[in-house]
Each structure stands twice: as C-alpha cells, then as structure tokens.
Amino acid sequence: MTSTTAHASTSWKWQARRILQIALPVMLSYLGHVLVGTADSMMVGQLGKVPLAAVSLANSIVVLPMMFGLGLSYGLTPLVAAADGRGNRRRIANLLQHSLLINVLAGAALAGLIVLLLPFLDDMEQPPAVVDIVGAYLAIAAGSLIPLMAFQAFKQFAEGLGYTRQAMYITLLANGVNVFFNWLLIYGNWGFPALGLAGAGWATLLSRILMAIGMAWYCYKSPLFERYRDYFHFSRFKKKMSVKLIKLGIPMGLQFTFEVGAFSGAVIMAGWISDTAQAAHQIAINLASMSYMIASGISAAATVQVGNLLGRKDVAGLRTAAVTSAVLVLVLQTLFALLFLFGRHLLPTLYIDNTNVIDIAAGLLVIAAFFQLSDGLQVVGLGALRGMEDVRVPTWITLFAYWILALPLGYLLGFTFDLGIVGVWWGLLTGLTVAAILLAVRFWWLSDKSRIQQLGA
C-alpha cells in the first residue's frame, strides 16, 4: 500500500466521497426491495383494511426467512472485498460460484419452510377475515425467494468489488415491472383476472425472476468482470470455502432475523389488538423500513471499505471509515426523523383513507422519528463489524437487544400497562437504542491496533 493511499484512507473527506459513491446505488437498490412491499401495501390498501392487514401479516412471516437469506448472502461481500484488497482474482471467482450454489439452495429451503407454516395460520390468533385471504399471497411470495437469492449472489459479488450501480438499475426496473403487474393482476385491468391479494404475489414473483436473470447476465457479459470469468467453474467446489461462507453468512442472517423478527413479532401483537392496529402498524413500519434501507446502504459501504482496508492492512483507515459512515447515517436519519414528525398525518393517507388507521399510524410515526438515529447507528455498526468478519458477538447483541429486551418490554407496555400498539413500539425503540450502543462499543474495542493484528490484518 502506497503512502498516498494510506493518507487518503485517513482523510474524512476522501472516506465520505468513497462511502457515498458505494452507498448511493446500494441505497436505491435496497429501497427497491422495500418498494416491492410498499407498492403491494399501497395498491392492496385500495381494497380495504382487511387486505392491507393481510399483507402486513404475510410480510411479517415472509420477511424473517427472507432477511435470514439476505444476511446469508452478505457473507460473500467482506470476503470479496478482502480478496480484492489482496488482488486475488481466483479466490473472488471461486467465492461467487460457491455463494451462488449456497444461495439458491437456501432460497428453496426457506420457501419450503414458509409453505409448511400455511396450515398453522389459524393458530396465530389473527383476525379470521385476514387469515381467510392471506394463504395464496404467502405461498407465492415464498416462491419468489429463490430468484431473489440468486440475484443476491451476483449483487453481493459486484458490491464487494465496489460496483453497485447495475444492481440499482435492475432493482428499480423490476419495481416498475412489479407495479405494472400489480395493476393488471390485483384489479383485473386489460382483461386480466382480478386476483386481488394473490395478484400482488404473482407480480412480486415475476419481478424477482427478472432481477435474477438481469444481474446474472450483467456479471457474465460486463467487461468489468472479464478478468474473473476464466476462474469461474461450476465443477470446482471446495468444502472449505463453502463452510467459510456459511460460517460467516449464518450469523449475519441471524442478526437480520433477530431485528426484523422483533418487528414481525410486533405485527402479531398488533393483530391481538385489532385489524385496525395491524393496518396502522403496517403503514408505519413500511415507511420506517424505507429509511432503514437508506441506512443499510451506508452500512454496506462500511462493510466494503472496512473489508478492503483490512485486506490492505490499513489499520489507521478502519476507524476513519466507520466513524465517517456513522456521521453520514446520522445526518440522513435526522432528515427522515423530521419527515416522519411533520408528515405523520399526511403520509398514512398515501396508503388508506380510513380515519382510525391514519390516526394510529400518525402516533406510531412519532416513535419512528425517535428511533431513526438508533436504527441508523446500529445498522452501520453491524456493517463495520461485518467488514472485519466479526459476526458472532454482534449476533448475540442483536438477540439480547431485540428478543430478550425489545419484545418482552413491548408486550409489557402494550398489554400489561394498556398502551396498545404504541407501547409495543416503545419497546422496539428501546431495543434499537441498546443495540446501537453495544455495537459501537464492540467496534471501538475490536478496532484497536493490537486486536486488528490478531485478526490477521
């Protein structure tokens, strides 16, 4: 590593430009994943509060295995970034082929798991009208995880090398496809059958198949990746590399599952209150998830930067990259907090015209405004630690913060103290704040020079 490169890595301004260069396309790409659910919620919401509550219930079930799968796929990114820092092309290509196989198999297994849950929907004590219509949508959405996981293998490969724009373009195009087929299949336009909620599921499946095909084609044909093509052979699989990806990916998947699972648990608790509370929760969490994906873009950039600097043995640049990422996410999340505060009565009207649902959602958006900073800091903390291939301790932190603290506290406030869905959300805020603090402490301790050297940096 040259002295010029080393100096650049400790420059706040250089790091901010580099992080934003990587993060901005990733943000839009991640937003694309959320906008699939947003489009479904908005367009299904026009059918009434029961279909909207059904989307909320289905998404709360699908999102757990989906986020585990996404986390599993993220194990590829820091390994590619570190190999790129060392200039090891063969390892990069081998990582991609192993990740692709693991992802597709995982997608099939996760889809099967969701389908196995269908007979147990009646046991979840949800509103009967919601349970009656949710099954078909849930089954189709489960099948869409297979092409989504294939897409993720190529996406995380490209992101690990710092190429993020094409995944953004493909994701945004797929969102347009999803909205178009929603319009055709939910409402029965242009002579198509009016499938209602199930139509939204078919639209999601079609859009994700196109995403997988588009990203695979780009990675195979682009001159940017030509140097890796000769090393890519499906016949050459090594147990050691597969185990490495799985050992890194599974804790990442659990991190996402624990956090998102807490919010899915909140959906279930909202259903115990009423379908009105459940619909309001869906609106508020859908809006909050958009800001979360913005923060996740910064987190992904932190993973790439920290991983690459670790591969280059640039210890001094690690903290600069992480702290710069944290400052950027705080600025962006503050803007979202202000949007939620001042737009809390307007934003829910984009989803539904039910006054009771809008009033409850407005109250939840006030709490969402408060947890924007904590949410942003915790996801950047996870990203920076991911770049250092530190995944086990952060997994325990997320388990404690969300399942041992946030959910029980939310239940206590919501039901024992009769605060309803607002109490559930105060529990979520507490969990996010504790996670942010503990992850920041973990990174600062681990990024000490002597410990970096012990990690092999």
What does this entry show, briefly?
By secondary structure, the protein is mainly alpha-helical. The chain has helices at 3-9, 12-45, 49-74, 76-86, 89-117, 128-143, 145-160, 165-187, 197-221, 226-229, 239-273, 275-311, 315-342, 355-387, 392-416, 421-446, 449-454. The chain has one domain (3-454).
Shape: globular
The main β sheet shows up as: none
Helix content: over 70%
Beta-strand content estimate: under 5%
Uncertain runs: 1-5
Quickly count the domains.
1
The DSSP helix count reads 17
Instruction: Write the H/E string, N to C.
Output: HHHHHHHHHHHHHHHHH
The strand count comes to: 0
Mean pLDDT: 87
Distance between the termini: 13 Å
The radius of gyration is 21 Å
Structural class call reads mainly alpha
Any key phrases for this structure?
457 residues; mainly alpha
Describe the protein in words.
By secondary structure, the chain is mainly α. It has one domain (3-454). The protein has helices at residues 3-9, 12-45, 49-74, 76-86, 89-117, 128-143, 145-160, 165-187, 197-221, 226-229, 239-273, 275-311, 315-342, 355-387, 392-416, 421-446, 449-454. Helix 7 runs parallel beside helix 9 (197-221) and helix 11 (239-273) runs antiparallel to helix 16. The longest helix is centred in the middle third of the chain and has 37 residues, at 275-311. The radius of gyration is 21 Å and the shape is globular. The two termini are 13 Å apart.
Secondary-structure blueprint:
Blueprint: H1 3-9, H2 12-45, H3 49-74, H4 76-86, H5 89-117, H6 128-143, H7 145-160, H8 165-187, H9 197-221, H10 226-229, H11 239-273, H12 275-311, H13 315-342, H14 355-387, H15 392-416, H16 421-446, H17 449-454
Helix pairs in contact: 2-3, 2-8, 2-9, 2-12, 2-13, 3-5, 3-6, 3-7, 3-11, 3-12, 4-5, 4-7, 4-12, 5-6, 5-7, 5-11, 6-9, 7-9, 8-9, 11-12, 11-15, 11-16, 12-13, 12-14, 13-14, 14-16, 15-16
